[in-house]
Fold these 2 entries.
Entry 1:
Amino acid sequence: MDNFALTLALGTIAALANVFGGFIVTARSHWNQEFLKYFIAFGSGFLLAAVFLKMIPISYEQSKLAPLFILIGYFVIHFFEHTAVPHFHFGEETHPEFLIPRAVGVSALVGLTTHTFFDGVSIASGFIINPTLGFLIFLAIMLHKIPEGFTIASLFLASGRSRKKALTSSFIIGAATLAGVVLMQFFHSLVSHGLALSAGVSIYVAASDLMPEVNKEKGIKLSVMVFIGVGLFYVTEFLLQKLGL
Ligand SMILES: [Zn+2]
Ligand SMILES: [Zn+2]
């Protein structure tokens, strides 16, 4: 399988995980919600390790402008997920004390679509540089893909939309992930900037979207899982090297 086919296949898996997250909400399956919280906790630890140990140093090796693009990536997501959106947070939408205005669904979808587009750019940029980096980034992103689909679909339901529309919203963020993967193929020469932007986006996602959800939980169980996520990153990197990838 060539690099592009592999990237496309993994991008599709990531996109399907978004749809699966939406499906959990819309099918009202009695899926264990605790399980999703673990994904969020593992995901933030793993993703932070990937960003600080791989994405930032490698993008800086490729371009001395990387720090600027990292900062831009961070603030692009801050703007689209939070400044332009009145109400957005990761996880299930459960605020019985107030109704979520309909407009929130659309603005949150725009925000999350921007974010998932860069999930795709991250995976593709990783593979363009080398397969080990690609796989590490893919796994780092994968861990929060189901919660992402879950988040947008539950926000759609909470803002008074049908289940069909809620499921469609998770399709849209999945499609944006694939769009990011495909678009990067046409801009191989911009990979250093793509990786740096993605690193900034990923810092936001891990530290400003996922970690606050971990910290909302009472007790230490979930915050310990963040460290296990970091540990998993090391184990995965070790195994990938053993496999000669
Ligand atoms: Zn809420
Ligand atoms: Zn994401």
Entry 2:
Amino acid sequence: MKRTGILFFPAFDWSLGDFHPEREERLLYTQEQLFEEGVLDLPQIKQFSPCVASIHQVLRAQALLPNPRVHADTLDAHLIAAGSAILLGEARVRGDIANGFVLARPPGHHSGGTVWGNRGFCTINNEAVLVNHLRARLGVKKIAIIDTDVHHGDGTQDIFYHDPNVLFISLHQDGRTLYPGTGFVNEKGGPNAWEQTLNIPLPPGTGDEGYHYVLENWVLPRLQAFAPDLIINSAGQDNHFTDPLASMNLTAGGYGRITELLQPDLAVLEGGYSIEGALPYVNLAILLALAGEDYHHVREPQKLDRPVLSLATIKPYIEALKKQHQTIKPSFTIRKKAFFPTGNWIYSPHSVYYDTEGFQENRHDYVRQCNHCAGTVYIESDRSPHKSILVRIPFQACPECEQAGYDLWDHLLHHSDDCISGLLQNQLQDKFSVWHRKEGLTLF
Ligand SMILES: [Zn+2]
Ligand SMILES: [Zn+2]
């Protein structure tokens, strides 16, 4: 029998405020609905208990700045959400289950490669921590992440932007009309991972038909061409027509069909803030689709009374977007600092706004151009008045890139003039060193 794993972690003691959409009871109604429908009694459903991720596991994907200790008091729920994703992912890779659904909160996809705090309700990127764990410990090589949350998965994109072995696809409401304001077709990946990021911004009002059209005619062919060992769905339920934060018009049944089309090995819950009107039904439809059961009878109580873009309208829009995407060619800025090791270094600056606490991070990213590996990454991250450095030696780094990483780290340790801290993220050797001006070196 093909088993479907399910793991609940509602985090009843964590919220961003009593009236915040990301609050304690977000998964309560889902839990009740699944019980009521008797889904948990289906013979193929296997329940798992939550599990805690370690800081070591987080540092494989993300730099907690200025150092991990600063975040210690606020991470409990986040570490359990990430640990739960790891647990179910391991079960999938080991063959204990055919697929699974991680119904945990807090969400994670707005949390990027450098983390100074919470943004878009996210501090730890659950899928990214999972993906890098499976690569480091279970030898999985090629992974695709399909983000179907209504918001652009900017954090996940940031973490894997230079990684040729991770295909990241995000479908979301157009960033000109919704947080976080990114995710356009020209964001296609770094020089060593060109075309391994695919963003499909959709117009507000896109409904089931339009969404399924995009999946069948753009996402699935791209996915098949990549031929991943594992498919992970960042399953945000905020495309639903009752969601208070966004303006898409998907139904619970529409979500069931998305799951059926994508055939993910693992679905990991992201957003979704229509707590009573959508989440119980969308999550039920997804779980039934994963379990190979009929989901067509799942109906949300409210009727869809918002105008939905017809397929006749959306089809030419998507085809034009696809053409625009194809015309965008790689264009990178070569720039290096005086102390950089040999090679071409590609420079890209950008800023990240942390909406939860209201501050800005300024990033200066450099990646070593390489035909043999993902390339060493050097990031200067400024959160005024502090500056931290991330040096990443990627999985399967070639000898030159590995050495470049050690040289950069060595330079930081001896010339740390204006920095408060740094992280050597050595994915190749699975070792993570944190240097902090006051606390010295710590190994994770
Ligand atoms: Zn969302
Ligand atoms: Zn290399």
